[in-house]
Design goal:
By secondary structure, the protein is mostly beta strands. Helices cover 9% and strands 53% of the residues.
C-alpha cells in the first residue's frame, strides 16, 4: 500500500506577533485558531514566511485563546520578525487507495490583519467514478468555487 501525505489543515496569511528565540523550539499559536482548523498541540507543522521565503518545520504549542498570538520560538524565531506573514499547514499520512475510494478534506482558515478568522472553508478531493475531483476556493478574485476533475487509476 502506498502512503501519501496530504494537507489536512492550514492557517493562511497569519501575522507574526512576536518571535522568541530564547524558547526551545516550536511555534505558539492562538488556541482558537488551532481549534478552527483541527491542528493539535505538539503536532508537526510546516511553515513558510511569505515575506522572505524562509521555510521550516516545527511543532505547535497552544497560546491564549482569542489573542491572535503567532510566535515562532527557538531557531524559527530567527527566520521571521513581528509583522511577517506566514502560511502554516499540517499534513497527515493516509493510504492513497483510501483517498481514491473515500476522498479527503482539508480545513483552511484565512486570517485578517489581527489573526482573526476572515474565512474558513474546506478544500476537498471527492471520488466520482474514475475521477477524483478537487474543490476549493479561489480568493484572489473574490470567493469563487473551483472544481477540477482529475483522472485517476482506480
Amino acid at each position: 500500500m502506498a502512503t501519501i501525505k496530504l494537507m489536512h489543515a492550514k492557517l493562511h496569511r497569519v501575522t507574526v506577533t512576536e518571535a522568541n528565540r530564547n524558547y526551545v523550539g516550536s511555534i505558539t499559536i492562538d488556541r482558537e485558531l488551532l481549534e478552527k482548523v483541527g491542528i493539535l498541540p505538539l503536532e508537526e507543522v510546516e511553515i513558510v514566511n511569505i515575506d522572505n521565503g524562509n521555510r521550516w518545520y516545527t511543532y505547535v504549542l497552544p497560546g491564549e485563546p482569542g489573542e491572535g498570538q503567532i510566535c515562532p520560538n527557538g531557531g524559527g524565531a530567527l527566520l521571521c520578525q513581528p509583522g511577517d506573514i506566514l502560511i502554516i499547514w499540517a499534513n497527515e499520512e493516509i493510504e492513497r487507495s483510501e483517498v481514491l475510494r473515500q476522498g479527503h478534506q482539508a480545513r483552511v482558515l484565512i486570517a485578517d490583519e489581527n489573526n482573526q478568522p476572515k474565512e474558513v472553508f474546506y478544500q476537498t478531493l471527492t471520488p466520482n467514478g474514475e475521477t477524483l475531483e478537487y474543490n476549493g476556493y479561489e480568493t484572489g478574485n473574490g470567493k469563487q468555487l473551483t472544481n477540477f476533475p482529475f483522472m485517476v487509476e482506480v
